[in-house]
């Protein structure tokens, strides 16, 4: 069952302003609303909850908005409106409909943007018909719906795409989710800054000043970790937490190691991909809740994890979590190239017993929206008398490979129900409500990185 959101009222559709007029324009909006409140009608009020700073290297949303396909907040969030806009653009260019922007689509959008002026009208009647798609209009992004705030989005463009000497572009907007239980509208402010990476770095102080004082601040870095860069460090240090999604890392292993290093440096780091493992972790723990099986957990010395080929982050994070809970220390790794790209990790527990874990990347014909989702896993023992065999598998794929390995009948088998809240924007919204440090994540990530360091030395 999909999660529904409230309708959204555009108090101010994206309006281009000069860099030094951002605060002035926003203040003008609320001054007008204050005057309205003193009159006869209900007024909209500025949200004072937190600031979300989004670093979005992909140009998809900005280009779709510029060309009129997308009419919602330019916030870097792939919500329902973005999905509709993306499909509309793909249909317009005669491309297959997918939930991600291909290189060909981006090229087409850039070419069209160079030939077409920016959409600046706030009149819905003048916008292209596809921006008013019934599946997308009237649906607020979950962030604005559940967490009204100020969103500052940074859209770096390639130097080659930017005209020499071109100024930074700034836009401001305000959108208000309709809440029936409230008499007034509590609205999100959106500030969009686009330009070359160098030009954005030159206004770091301005960017920091746009984050609301004395309120929580979050940095959603939608790219590989970049802690060696001064730009990232300044932004991260000005926020209460840094949010990544390791499912989108181009260099997964390097990205996980850099996240772990940030944790060691004292940063409050979150990974949305870690949150996708919650159901797998809960069912694994639940399998050993009965008193008769609790002691059998110590007999587990064989672990098999299958995941969708393409991104091993979830598999490594789950294995790191399991090992950290059972105090397993990784001692050796063996990589085997082939159809499954097998990775075998040897651990040692406090009782000096060896445990072997095997990670297998399974090719899949229908890749989901999230790269590297877990498919199934098995916990077993070389002690045939031990009652510890546990098999978990995705409800969408079944347990065929685990059953083919034999012994499934003597195992506890459970299916992980596909979750409807795996999308980044939903996980982000949930995290923003409970954003304290996650000790389990940090400890599990440390073990995952210890495995990766052994791989680097192998």
UniProtKB/TrEMBL annotation:
InterPro entries: G6PDH_assembly_OpcA (IPR004555), OpcA_G6PD_C (IPR046802), OpcA_G6PD_N (IPR046801), Peptidoglycan-bd-like (IPR002477), PGBD-like_sf (IPR036365), PGBDSf (IPR036366)
Domain Peptidoglycan binding-like stretches: 59-109
Name of protein: Glucose-6-phosphate dehydrogenase assembly protein OpcA
Record domain Glucose-6-phosphate dehydrogenase assembly protein OpcA C-terminal: where: 269-443
Pfam families the UniProt entry points to: OpcA_G6PD_assem, OpcA_G6PD_C, PG_binding_1
The organism of origin for this protein: Lyngbya confervoides BDU141951
PANTHER family noted in UniProt: OXPP CYCLE PROTEIN OPCA-RELATED (PTHR38658)
Entry superkingdom: Bacteria
Domain Glucose-6-phosphate dehydrogenase assembly protein OpcA N-terminal: 140-260
